[in-house]
Design brief:
CATH topology: Porin
Distance between the termini: 45 Å
Helix content: under 10%
Shape: globular
Order of helices and strands: HHEEEEEEEHEEEHEEEEEEEEEEEEEEEE
Largest sheet: 16 strands, antiparallel, barrel
CATH architecture: Beta Barrel
Number of strands: 26
CATH superfamily: Porin
Oligomer: single chain
């Protein structure tokens, strides 16, 4: 008998919902049109009621096209790719109730609903319900537009993603402390397998602390610390971990794989899944530094004929970005904000937008006890170094050039040839060129 899901959502048809939403929020009565609402652009296109605290609808989206070049002759992965193609809606019915929806058009998956949530507002706090990001990690909570490398770090794959649930979040001491805590299904976005044995919710929480936010010194204002954690009793079907390097994102390759159907047999039972994240960031002048440490533990994994054992994985990264043209990176409300150019691209006036240089070092450590050396799909250690140049043409358009080198402690099989032999890699060098529009 299948288990009950704690929360559920129907994806529906995005266009029908959007049209209905617009018609419900903004009746097109010609005689009152000019007095009822107005439109503009501020961080996204919007239609807003004339009444203060009234209805508002924001339309946005993201489109990213990549070209990736690999130096390894053992693989044939050089390609153009649509990395993201999204449409999003945000808005409010009144100042006490907000909503959001985001849909992904890229890929062949049938479940392309990214976000779908409502939110009741209580002063500086709010109660969110639906499908959205679980509260975990500075890197994950910061929007894609504020990522200055082609991909997030390897530690991103140890954390939770989007899930269906309910979350209370808000701020204290004039945003000096930001907090969020919630309960979720624990098995990913709507349509994910939940398993027949466990339906307890996953608890997740994140808190950030800016101790010098009101300090007079600009050297101290941008310091932020934070911590995150999740805990869940899970079903064996929810053991589904695939850690990827920058060059493996968007492919069927991974550098560490642990699923319920392991090379040691089918996992028959599992205790819990526990995650911990620690973060720190410092924005000062045209520079921002940030770093995080992640751990993921599956407890009491049990296969046929073996005693229960834990699987322990960890990862960390440290990064820095310098805006060569003088823009100041901003940490606000617990996340990194996108760069806003001091001067937009306009060759006639001799302005070219913002130019930012970023560097990152990262490390991943897998559990060797759950690696079958004969499978060539997992490594015990991986180290990566990235260098990225960001040209922010406008606030909503940029070009990213990213080079990432990843060293692997063990060989990974990348292809099987027609004669039955196989090619392996122990390092990855990938150059990513991305044109991104995010409005």
């Amino acid at each position: 008998m299948p288990s009950k899901r704690l929360f559920s959502v129907e994806a529906g048809t995005i266009w029908k919902f959007s049209l209905l939403l617009i018609l419900l929020l903004f009746p097109l009565q010609e005689v009152f049109a000019e007095r009822i609402f107005f439109a503009g652009y501020k961080g996204g296109f919007y239609i807003r009621s004339e009444e203060e605290g009234g209805m508002e609808l924001r339309l946005g989206g993201a489109f990213q096209t990549d070209y990736r070049y690999y130096t390894e002759e053992e693989r044939a992965d050089n390609r153009f790719d649509i990395r993201r193609a999204r449409l999003r809606f945000r808005g409010q019915l009144t100042k006490y109730f907000r909503f959001g929806m985001e849909y992904e058009f890229q890929g062949n998956e049938t479940d392309n609903l990214v976000d779908a949530y409502g939110e009741a507002v209580f002063g500086p706090s709010a109660l969110r319900f639906g499908q959205f990001k679980e509260p975990f990690s500075l890197e994950w909570q910061s929007v894609d537009k504020a990522q200055y490398f082609a991909e997030r770090s390897m530690g991103y794959f140890l954390g939770p993603k989007r899930d269906i649930g309910i979350m209370f979040h808000g701020s204290l001491f004039q945003d000096g402390i930001m907090y969020s805590a919630g309960l979720f299904n624990g098995d990913g976005d709507d349509g994910s397998a939940s398993g027949p044995e466990e339906d307890s919710p996953e608890a997740a929480a994140r808190i950030t602390f800016s101790p010098f936010k009101r300090a007079l010194s600009p050297w101290l204002n941008g310091i932020q610390f934070g911590a995150s954690a999740t805990y869940a009793k899970i079903d064996p079907l929810n053991v589904d971990l695939r850690v990827k390097s920058t060059g493996m994102v968007g492919t069927d390759r991974s550098l560490y794989v642990l699923t319920h159907n392991t090379k040691f047999g089918v996992i028959q039972d599992v205790g819990s899944r526990q995650r911990i994240g620690i973060e720190a960031a410092w924005a000062v002048g045209p520079v921002i530094f940030q770093g995080e440490y992640f751990t993921l533990t599956y407890t009491d994994l049990e296969t046929a004929g073996d005693n229960p054992a834990d699987a322990d994985l960890a990862s960390w990264y440290a990064s820095a970005m310098w805006c060569i043209t003088g823009e100041k990176p901003i940490l606000s409300k617990g996340i990194v904000k996108p760069i806003y150019p001091n001067n937009f691209f306009n060759p006639q006036e001799g302005t070219w937008g913002a130019l930012c240089l970023a560097a990152r070092v990262e490390h991943f450590s897998g559990d060797e006890n759950w690696i079958n050396p004969a499978s060539y799909v997992s490594v015990e250690e991986a180290d990566a170094y990235s260098l990225a140049l960001n040209w922010v043409i406008y606030p909503m358009a940029r070009i990213v050039l990213d080079y990432t080198h990843t060293s692997l402690s063990d060989p990974i099989r990348v292809r099987v040839l027609p004669d039955g032999s196989a090619d392996y890699i122990e390092a990855e060098n990938v150059v990513t060129c991305r044109f991104s529009i995010d409005f």
